[in-house]
Amino acid sequence: FEPSPQHHYQPGYTMIGGGLISPDSVVIETAKMIPKGVAWVPQAVEKFEPGNNTIYTQDGSAYTYDQLIVSAGVVNNYDAVKGLKEALDDEKCPVGTIYNYNYATKFGHLMKDFKKGKAIFTFPQIPIKCAGAPQKILYLSEDYWRKNGARKDIIIDYNITGDLFFSVKRYADALEPIAKSKGINIRYRYILKEVRGKDRIAVFEDQSTKQTTEEKFDLLHAVPPMHAPEVIRKSPLANEQGYIDVDQFTMQSKKYPNVWAVGDCTNIPTSKTAAAIFSQTPFLLRYMMSIVNNTETPQKKYDGYTGCPVFIGDNKLMLCEFLFNAQPTETFGDQTIPKKSFYYLKRYFFPFAYFQLMPRGLWQGRSFLINPAA
Q: Is 265 known to be catalytic?
């Protein structure tokens, strides 16, 4: 069940905003991403009735199931920041975000045209999808301005809502010095509350003192808070926070044994990334099929693996990989050292794998190299 006629490679939004790729390179017809033998229903699910093994679509149709897998992602909550949506929709207002296709395209143009002034980048309350992306666009922008001779005339602020530069200390300790070496001003516990686009003012609240500060900007990259889609939040599948309540090791619903979920819409305690979904899926399928076929339960369980490839400029990238409890796990040795090989992996191979291998079931992220669910 997928209502959109077009499918987007969302990890590419950062590269659009950072000027690395064209917007049309991340778009493909949804039909081309559907495997052979799968019936595509171009409708959005409007209601879950797991007690009756039934879902309802927007056109009023009802569908029953034996097993249900949900992977609905999260949605941007623009209303959480007063004035943000209006500023993003105003083509004349220098506000963008790489968490939306149109706004990423807008920011890409704004970033390239920016020659001098104050640029502010924000990081909101978590959870959000791809929590490394706010840093990626920060570094890609700085890199572009530096290489095009504008950096000396630009002040860059990075305002973080929380206390950590990155959720994993090993990578935080490596990334923060990189940001400081680029002359980026970092502020912690500083949350974006309002955007007054016409006045070019961003209002921040200091989480320690609860005092608000108005800051003038010439360019603003604002990351909106996020939450699960309403259809999930109002469903029996959700926990109190609005995410599907699943066993973190098997992705099986804690309430309904024939319901499963992966990715951003779940309460699995790991970062919400494409790498996490690729890693969760093999475990989900093995556990589900053991129930369907009444065979032995697999012994190996999902360990929380997720990956976050962070562009840091100069055609280099830090490949951050970790498990539950923010435990680093590195595939290629010491990955706190940014490498050009990682940059080309993210820039060229990952999109290829997504469009060409994943629809055929031939790509499972790191499991393609190391198959922990085998």
A: no
